Amino acid sequence: MTTDSKSTKVLGYLPDDTPPVGAMISLGFQQFLTMFPATVLVAIMTRFDVGITLLASGLGTIVALLVSKRKIPMYYGSSFSYIAVIITVMSKFAPDCYNSGAAYCPEGVKIVQVGIILTAVFEILVGLLIMRVGKTALDRILPPIVTGSMAMVIGVALANAALGPAGNWAAPEVAGITWLVAFITLIATILFSVYLQGKGLIGMLPILLGAIFGYLVAIPFGLVNFAPVATAGWLELPKFTFPAFTSAEAWGMALSIALIFIATVPESTAHLYQMSLYIDNLAAELGRKPYNIKGLIGLNLVADGADDLVVGFLGGCAGTNYGENNSLMAITRNYSTTVLMAAGAIAVVFGFFGKLVALVNTMPQAVVGGLSIYLFGVIGMQGVALIQSEKVNLFDPKQLAIGAVILILGIGGNLTLPDGMFPFPLPFLFPNGIPAIVFAAIVGILMNLVFVIFKPAE
């Protein structure tokens, strides 16, 4: 780290700094630990292979950092926003595997991969568009009332995916135990997240701590089977899958998956603004020029797309840059992209640890359900936070109408319609009907465009 005489006592690393090897590895391992719980949890819930998800997360992060010319320090893990539509795909195209509780369902994964790759294309195109015309044009098409409402829909629509493994899907004779373990896990995770906040690295790992606590509680109830760990090898090749590009079903679901990026764009942008503030503050303390990465919104989205291209082709879960890793960087005052690349390399290596992958896959459904109740609720509340932070006027009939329609069509449709589908088949794209979450996004965007073109009186 280079500093001048005025800043010799200031500790921290800026994006283009390279710490000593020891610091680089230890800081990188912290970044790996921070992303690990949420990243593998998404893989468990969607029946993706944990090993390839870790490998793809690390490699995708390295590629994204290189695409951003190492200007934007971000770590990419699995996104929760895509879970609802991925579960829909699994239930429809790999029902026997998914309903059996298997750890990995390749038939469904191959179809989802096409959608993740289409997501990457959308993100890259939107990023290039912003780099050319600016973010204001995008905000006219995707204002906060649309993106915030969609985040709420995604979170609440996942209620069944949380309550199911928590106990609703359990056999009657074990349902009571399953619900008990789920709620113990939920309460422990909430307590860890609230009372350990600001306590250094341990305060960044409430999900991991909650999962470990719930796991230990589940053991005496007989909910954990260690047999797969005993039979797994120490080193195993992750389960790579090739996208089902030749499948009509894959292309029919691809747009449903890709449109979820609407909810991830504001999340990614918010993370960029947050990091820009912290980085420029440290640069000022070090007597160096501000980096002003908040002006790289378009490049940031292109990097997001580069990550999704990698995970889509390998068979990992759809990615997003992680706010928890950003918070860890703020706490440690380390924004070095070299450290993040080291974290990515560590994730790649751990993707080959067969015993670790097998151990993760022994996570009881009750524990997953307890964690999911909290995590999915947080996704919904983040939509509320986005609308609040952007000061959306909910006394404006236009804003109120857009948000109200998105919520009812998205949440109500996903929870009450058969298979969560509106009965409006579109040849090739949606031959069996339009998924409720996608339908809500389309209607919300179209309503907003009508108001943009035919402006109502103020």
Descriptive account of the structure:
This protein has about 450 residues and is mostly helical. The protein has one domain. It has 20 helices and four strands. It has a two-stranded antiparallel ribbon. A two-stranded antiparallel sheet has the order 3-4.
List keywords for this structure.
two-stranded antiparallel sheet; 458 residues; mainly alpha; 67% helix; disordered N terminus
* Main sheet makeup: 2 strands, antiparallel
Quaternary organisation of the protein chains: single chain
Tell me the number of structural domains: 1
The strand order across the widest sheet is: 1-2
How confident overall, as mean pLDDT? 89
- The count of β-strands is 4
* Proportion of helical residues: 55-70%
Radius of gyration from the CA trace?
Answer: 22 Å
Ranges where pLDDT stays below 50 over 5 or more residues in a row are 1-7
Beta content comes to under 5%
Span from first to last CA?
A: 54 Å
Shape verdict: globular
> In sequence order, what are the helices and strands, one letter per element?
HHEHHHHHHHHHHHHEHHHHHEEH
Please count the helical segments.
Answer: 20
**Helix/strand/pairing class, anyone?**
mainly alpha
